[in-house]
Design goal:
By secondary structure, the protein is of the alpha/beta class. The chain has helices at 3-10, 69-84, 99-102, 114-117, 140-143, 164-171, 177-181, 183-189, 200-213, 238-241, 252-259, 304-319, 337-341, 344-356, 372-377, 401-414, 420-437, 440-445, 458-470; strands at 17-19, 39-46, 49-56, 64-65, 88-94, 96-97, 129-138, 150-154, 158-160, 195-197, 265-268, 276-283, 286-293, 324-330, 362-371, 387-390, 395-397, 451-452. The longest helix has 18 residues, at 420-437.
Length: 474
């Protein structure tokens, strides 16, 4: 697809209006060969709501952008989007800044361009930014992925600050586009991509789904709709999805799917930090951000990647006023040499800082286990939650009872002359006692948990809590 075809396919049919089509390179020798100066800018509607669109035109001088008209076009559409409160969609493919236009003193002014300055530092001007990489993208086009609220790429595309040719020229090393910045790199290693799509139409469709769930800007109301799924719908399947034994794994995505309207979600960083699920969806027509632990990966423990993912998602939801729903099943923060060397302490405290500054409603549902710092990071009941619910299977505490008994009483088994059989039986009793003390009933009795609920009623309970938290009176 060409850049214009992509813009037309992205927005509602017949709504795209292009501006700056007559722009061209300031170099007279290139003027006729640089229509639009390498980018297409305009406005259209997604689901009836206005959005701004900026797209690299890969057919113009290798997909490069000029430093005059192209910069002014890009800056104007971004500034206007922020002024009016229009979400911005950036469609990337190309070589970034035009090398011939950027050599020498001209580079002195590039720091003022919007693609380098990033988001507005004025909260009331902040608008959602969605980016789709639909081919090979380098330089300024790729930089947008670093500030995107939601980013997708196709399986045949790649993006990086420098192209393989520039890497070879600068370092002498040879690397392929895929090795440098292909889908596997950015979905699994860097976490810069939220979704990898098989085709361009699929990528554009996912962008539309994201935009539909977002407010127009940080100061605009949530896009509420009439639900097509009864809020009173019971989810009896939840009793089959979640095993009774705490050490049995299950896919939290299935729990989320049972709770949200129609099972529909837009997942963030699906291939990165997979012990944590972060997704947007609706409950009773209300957009919500869902955060859940996935015991299918690392038993659901929070590692560095999961913490980074969590901090980014919480911050985005709070910026745009999206209520948060936490679904707990976490044995703790991942411990050991590797996470310590990766800075797990710093990353966990970044999560706690973001969480502590969240102003949006927070609803926690303790599904199974939730221990230690991870309990707090998942917006445990000690914090300023709007509401906290628990299933009867919930267990909370400083750490898992088995680990606690090993640490507190394990030395007894190593003592000379120890009656190992008797001590093992005693330790089993202690594990059972500590497990029962972590059940939700005492916490509910002390009003730290608002209710212990039937799992099948989770959807309705969360919806009613959202109505109260958002002050909906109709």
């Amino acid at each position: 697809m060409t850049a214009r075809e992509r813009a037309l396919a992205l927005v509602d049919e017949g709504t795209f209006v292009e501006f700056g089509a007559l722009a061209h390179a300031d170099d007279p020798d290139r003027a006729e060969r640089s229509p639009g100066d390498g980018i297409i800018t305009g406005y259209g509607r997604i689901g009836g709501r206005m959005v701004a669109v900026e797209a690299n035109d890969a057919t113009v001088l290798g997909g490069s952008n000029g430093m005059e008209a192209a910069v002014r076009k890009g800056d104007r559409v971004r500034d206007f989007a922020e002024e009016k409160g229009y979400p911005l969609v950036y469609l990337a493919e190309g070589g970034g800044g035009r090398v011939g236009d950027m050599m020498g003193w001209v580079m002195a002014r590039t720091g003022g361009t919007r693609s380098i300055r990033g988001h507005s530092n004025l909260p009331h001007r902040r608008v959602p930014l969605a980016v789709a990489v639909l081919g090979q993208s380098y330089g300024s086009g790729a930089l947008n992925m670093g500030i995107a609220d939601f980013a997708v790429m196709t399986r045949t595309s790649s993006f990086s600050i420098a192209s393989p040719a520039l890497v070879e020229a600068a370092t002498g090393g040879q690397v392929t586009e895929e090795e440098l910045g292909g889908p596997e790199v950015h979905s699994r290693i860097t976490g810069l991509v939220d979704a990898v799509c098989d085709s361009e139409p699929e990528a554009l469709a996912v962008i539309r789904e994201f935009i539909a769930l977002m407010p127009r800007s940080a100061t605009k109301p949530l896009p509420l709709i009439e639900p097509d799924d009864p809020v009173e719908r019971r989810s009896e399947e939840l009793g089959l999805i979640v095993p009774e034994k705490a050490n049995r794994a299950f896919d939290m995505k299935r729990v989320i799917g049972a709770i949200v309207d129609g099972g529909r979600t837009v997942e963030f960083q699906a291939g990165y930090g997979r012990s944590l699920v972060a997704a947007l969806g609706r409950i009773g027509g209300i957009p919500v951000g869902l955060v859940g632990n996935n015991s299918m990966f690392k038993a659901g423990s929070i590692d560095v990647a999961a913490a980074q993912k969590m901090a980014r998602f919480l911050s985005m939801c709070d910026t745009f006023g999206i209520p948060l729903v936490f679904l707990h099943d976490v044995p703790g923060v991942l411990i050991g040499k590797e996470p310590e060397h990766q800075g797990i302490i710093r990353h966990m405290m970044q999560v706690m800082t973001v969480l502590g500054n969240c102003r949006v409603p927070r609803i926690a549902v303790i599904v199974r286990k939730s221990y230690g710092l991870a309990f707090a990071a998942m917006s445990g009941s000690w914090g300023p939650n709007t509401f906290t619910f628990a299933w009867p299977s919930a267990r909370i505490g400083f750490m898992a009872p088995e680990a606690g008994v090993r640490i507190a009483f394990g030395h007894e088994l190593a003592a000379p002359g120890a009656d190992r059989e008797a001590l093992t039986a005693r330790h089993a009793d202690l594990i059972e006692q500590w497990d029962q003390s972590g059940a939700p009933w005492m916490a509910a009795g002390m009003a730290y948990i608002d209710d212990v609920i039937d799992p099948a009623e989770t959807r309705e309970k969360v919806f009613r809590a959202l109505e109260i938290a958002l002050g909906r009176s109709h």
